[in-house]
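User: Predict the complex.
Assistant: Input components as received:
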Amino acid sequence: MIHLENLCRHFEVGNQIVRALDEVDLEINKNEYVSIMGVSGSGKSTLLNILGLLDTPTSGSYVLSGVSTSKMNDDEMAHIRSTKIGFIFQSFHLIPRLTAAENVEMPMVISGLNPKERKEKVDNALARVSLTDRSDHRPEQLSGGQRQRVAIARSIVMEPDVLLADEPTGNLDSISSKEIIKLIEELNKGGLTLILVTHDTDLGLRSDRLIELLDGKIVTDKKN
Amino acid sequence: MRFYDLLFLAFSTLIRYPLRTLMLLIATSIGVMAVILLTAVGEGARDYITGEFKDMGTNLLIVMPGKNETTGGGSPADLAGVAPRDLTVEDAISLRQIEAINRIAPIVVGETPAQFNGLERSVPIIGTTPSFLAVRKWEMESGNFLPGVTLDRSPPVCVIGKEVESELFGKNNAIGQWLRVGDRRCRVTGVIATEGRAIGIDVQKIVVMPVSLATALFNRPSLFRIIAEARNTWEMDQIKKDIIRIIKKRHQGKEDITVIRQDAVMKSFDNIFDVLTMALGSIASISLFVAGILIMNVMLVAVSQRQSEIGLLKAIGAKNKQINYLFVTEAIILSGSGAILGLILGHTTTQVLKLAFPTFNFLPPLWASFVSLIVALVSGVIFGLLPARRASKLDPVIALSGNK
């Protein structure tokens, strides 16, 4: 599913070169539940951005579902993000002026799906996160947990292969956090590959596989 | 992305920031309103001026002495250095043979003191015939306009303007009184009601007398010009040729007059006002571009404010092109609705001005509405491009980690 080989991501900061990812080799299979841990600055967010095609590696190869991403242009990468990858962020990233349903609809709006099909998929996705009764609420009228559920509904509405979650419970209380984790784990059981970035050890230990990064290198890769 | 969705997203942003949107709408609408108002004033001025000409009639021909052209040397007259002949009353009389001419009004102009009952003032004199009244479409306040006067007959009568009446005659009835003009005397037969100017002279200050009396008074036979009124407009070119032919014959074969058509004069005024209105419109258009620059500034700020949203759109699969369209659409909607608001305001204001100043006709030309709308839209696109480009080029990682 995901195959990284000798992948480097270097940033130039002033005269220094920061090796955010340094010769990373990684293989993630379909339907795996992987958590990526590490202290801040270890490169875990950079890895997630590269896996999500938001960032491009300095060198090395990234093959997603058998397709090499290294020669892709911006539009091709946007297409992959649209169809194959779902994102969940720590700060939800909902568009404040749109209702829950409209936020969930956005990926399909961008891909140009016809409105009738969109309506059905939005209803399904909102039912999946148990927010059907909140569909016409704006983000400001929803609690943190509800907002993250809207974001999850948005991430799965295009039926992606991979779900990338960047500290999805970082802004939530413990009860909401449990709900959200339960929800994304259910999605994983439904066949979705789940990659979770976190620095919460309890969360890391729940996953099938735990990868720990330090200074841009994988230092731990173990099955739980 | 579907067109409808694009519009919806752009609209939802504009509604989200009502103050910002309102300010930009006002900026654009003021620009458009300025174009409408200024061109309305320009067109109104044109209407006023051409209206004045139309009052005098478009079927007039004006004959003036002298001709601006270089003639070839070699003719005996040139060698003798003979100056062009003056236009005379006899020339005017000779034009009677042209059947297509309705009326002939010769004009002599001069200035001389007028005196009544010990009061004296210097007055401009116009010497002419009764045809002049009809040709100029003047109105009489009282009495008659030069009764019994023709091109050949000149009884000692005169007509005075309102100011001459009040200054020299005061409360006395001027009609029937003998007014001393220069070294002549003439009986006042009427007072002119019309105000305004004729041949650059204030009508209220003038004394009008028979043409022969005026030539005698100034002791010179030359006419200032002859005004001929054509029976029909379509005959004017023929009349012009006939006038030149007849006068040329009378002036020993020298074509030493100029004949202009009143409608030609009007046409050149029309051209002047074309340029004037365009100039006013262009000046006002500058304010439209200023509004465009304002839109650009505000949108550049908006791009940095909405970084995280742009990042999100990219994360969920938006192509750079789509982000670009989104911002350009916002700019077009802003400038377009600003322009429409400006059109409404501009036309409403001209209607209000029309009520406030009924004598001046405010005429916003149709092209001004179209041009200002198009200029507003074009400046919206042009000035929307830079912010849109900046938004589409944002690095999604940086944008997502940016402000919310």
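Residues 120 and 126 of chain A are 10 Å apart (CA to CA).
Let me know if you want any component modeled separately.
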